[in-house]
Amino acid sequence: MTFVAADEAAVAALIDDLYAAFLAGDRRRFDGHLHADVTTWETHLPGPLRSRAELDAYRNSRDASGQRPQLALLVARDKHIDVWGATAVARYVLLARSHPDQPLSATRVTDVLRRVGGRWLIVHHHAELLRDQEETR
């Protein structure tokens, strides 16, 4: 396996673990994949969040009000990952379902990552809700 292929596999595994950590409610593990200066732009957020501190403030407020999403499914599909030295870009479709009887929602995601101290960390996360899916994957 080449270094690039190994890095692509490591980024793919990071993305899978990120969403597994979310489903498990393991914020510490989830946050371990984020750089302190991560920017987070998502359809449902109240504007771009320009650091982990801003993301934490949003999540703390959301969680305190009982609004943390409860999901039955959260999985990244169709991953396309490119690596250039210490920089990587991952593009994928994130499928989510709040309850087994509910339709899937699909979100188009782009993550930019940097290798810092030998670890890949997300420095920019951009997610745009596409539509609800009727199929049951």
From TrEMBL:
Residues 11-122 form the DUF4440 domain. InterPro entries: DUF4440, NTF2-like_dom_sf. Pfam families: DUF4440. This is DUF4440 domain-containing protein. The lineage of its organism: Bacteria, Bacillati, Actinomycetota, Actinomycetes, Micromonosporales.
